[in-house]
Amino acid sequence: MSNENRTGMPNSLHEHWMPFTSNKDFKESPRLITEAKGVYLKNHHGKTMIDASSGLFCNPLGHGRKEITNAVAKQLEQLDYVQPFQQGFGGSFELARRISKHTPGNLNRIFFTICGSTAVETAIKIVIAYHKAKGQGQRFRFVGRERAYHGMNIGATSVGGMINNVKTFASILMPGVVHMRHTHLKDHKFVKGQPTTGAEMAEDLERICMNFGSENIAACIVEPIAGSTGTLVPPKGYLKRLREICDKHGIILIFDEVITGWGRTGSAFASQEFGVTPDVMTMAKATTNGVVPMGVVAVKEEIYDAVMDASPKGAVELFHGYTYSAIPVSVAAALAVQDIFEKENIFKKSKEMSPYFLDGIFSLKDLDGVDNIRGYGMMAGIDIKLKEKPGRAGFECFKACYEAGVNFKATGDCLIIAPQFICEKKHIDEIVEKLRKGISNYSKKR
Ligand SMILES: Cc1ncc(COP(=O)(O)O)c(C=O)c1O
Q1: Atom of ligand 1 nearest to the CA of 282
Q2: 120 lines ligand 1 (CB under 6 A)
Q3: Are strands 379-384 and 177-180 parallel, antiparallel or unpaired?
Q4: Is 330 in the pocket of ligand 1 (CB under 6 A)?
Q5: Residue 1 pLDDT more than 50?
Q6: How close is the Cα of 152 to the center of ligand 1, in Å?
Q7: Is the C-beta atom of 116 inside 6 A of ligand 1?
Q8: Is residue 7 part of a domain?
Q9: What is the pTM assigned to this prediction?
Q10: I want to staple 333 with a disulfide (CB 3.0 to 4.6 A). Which of 8, 200, 288, 371 is the partner?
């Protein structure tokens, strides 16, 4: 295959070890995407599919946005790379300012990373540096939550709570991590939006404080809505209670908004949507509309100040950073995205489309193969009834839906649906119709 034709069927599928993929299955029957435009994708059979998960929650503005492509091209022409240590360029400072206009409270100090995992890893390190700076170096424990996904570096894996992601690596995980229980209760079945029961699950944090000594706990990290496990929406009052317990014990509260950030809930961040301000927040994915990698950590000004004040003038205050932290190409994409957010009032668009989207998704409740549905904003999870062993139903149902012309991500036995915010009602209808067809076809074959 020539360099010009990298999108067709490759000469060999053997060499590339694909991430989070059943490689053997894929290589027997590949699913290659060749084109993406707006809300549509084309696969290597020439078939058009609707993108029902914005890639991996990455492209809420739709695929192939000319404004972003042009900004990236222009940036590469002018300045392709700047080393980010002890040097910089104007764009990253401008982007930090634009991002801080949207962050809640005074989370106005912005550290750039290269993806969601490195944002979480960085948040963990910043928390430790902060406690050390405040003379609280004994705080080493992190509290995560079952069914959480925070990425795949060692720190992020350790605070995560999806069993398949951790069991192989148990021997090398970060010490001192404790997990709260997840918030998905039996009476949350087919609940649209926030469940009214279950806020008491936040008391797990109080219990952990009692069992492990709150003075040893550095931070509690949660996704405001657990995304990768299939849209677990926080019960009403749950996040507020976590905030209260953290305040009581001097524990830093981290919201991982890698999925929920930038409008997915209908507000800029889930923090504003649910009225709870964390101390540290992570983001990635939609920051660049997914076209180039970038992660972001926003921290409260006090945290930044404490770390700055703990170092003498002229010293590096935080021994942490990445070669690709806020490189020009990522910054250019993210700035173009910020422009589109503003110009097209994107968060409002997401909020306005949410009821229509959720009604459509919940209309699939009558299908034989569907076990449960959850949703908030522009994200939803559809649990497929279990087959012989966990994970099988989700994957087979995903394949049936792919055949039916709708693409998304399945995790375990849950279909993760998160359309683009530029979707019109007709696109939501198409997603729902094709999901109905795909899930029904899967059920017939069961
Ligand atoms: C909440 C959350 N945090 C972190 C990550 C990791 O992001 P990345 O894959 O960019 O490293 C993800 C990825 O899905 C995520 O959903």
Answers
A1: 3
A2: yes
A3: unpaired
A4: no
A5: no
A6: 8
A7: yes
A8: no
A9: 0.97
A10: 288
Give yes or no for a contact between 318 and 129, defined as CB atoms under 8 angstroms apart.
yes
**Confidence class of residue 388 from pLDDT cuts 50, 70 and 90?**
confident
Q: Is the CB of 223 under 6 A from ligand 1?
A: yes
Is the confidence at residue 300, as pLDDT, over 50?
Answer: yes
CA 238/CA 236 separation, integer angstroms: 6
* Residue 258 CA to ligand 1 centre (angstroms): 6
Q: Which atom of ligand 1 is nearest to the CA of 156?
A: 4
CATH number of 80's domain:
3.40.640.10
Ligand 1 neighbourhood includes 255 CB (under 6 angstroms): no
Judgement on whether residues 289 and 377 belong to the same structural domain of the protein: no
Residue 392 and residue 420 share a domain = yes
Is residue 120 included in any domain, yes or no? yes
CA 97 to centroid of ligand 1, rounded, Å: 23
- 8 A C-beta contact, residue 19 and residue 115: no
Asked if 275 and 203 sit in the same domain, the reply is yes
| pLDDT tens track for 210-223 | 999 999 999 999 99
Q: What separation in Å is there between the alpha carbon of 256 and the centre of ligand 1? A: 9
Give the pLDDT score at 115: 98
pLDDT in tens, 352-363: 999 999 999 999
Which of 285, 408, 414 has most ligand 1 atoms within 8 Å of its beta carbon, as the pocket-test mutant? 285
> Does 151 sit in the ligand 1 pocket, CB within 6 Å?
yes
What's the whole-number mean pLDDT along residues 62-77? 98
CA of 305 to the centre of ligand 1 (A): 27
Closest by CA position to 286, among listed 403, 397, 377: 377
Task: Look at residues 291, 310, 343 and tell me which one is the last residue of a structural domain.
Answer: 343
Of 311, 343, 375, the residue that ends a domain is 343
- Share of residues in the chain with pLDDT > 90 (%): 95
The pLDDT of residue 327 is above 60? yes
User: Is the residue at 5 inside a domain?
Assistant: no
Q: How far apart are CA 330 and CA 423, in angstroms?
A: 25
**Structural domain containing residue 316:** 69-343
- What is the percent of the chain with per-residue pLDDT over 70, rounded to a whole number? 98
Q: Which two tokens stand for residue 195?
A: 């469940």
Total domains in the fold of the chain: 2
Positive/negative CA dihedral, 151, 334, 36, 349: positive
Same domain, yes or no, for 219 and 292?
Answer: yes
Tell whether 109 and 28 lie within a shared domain.
Answer: no
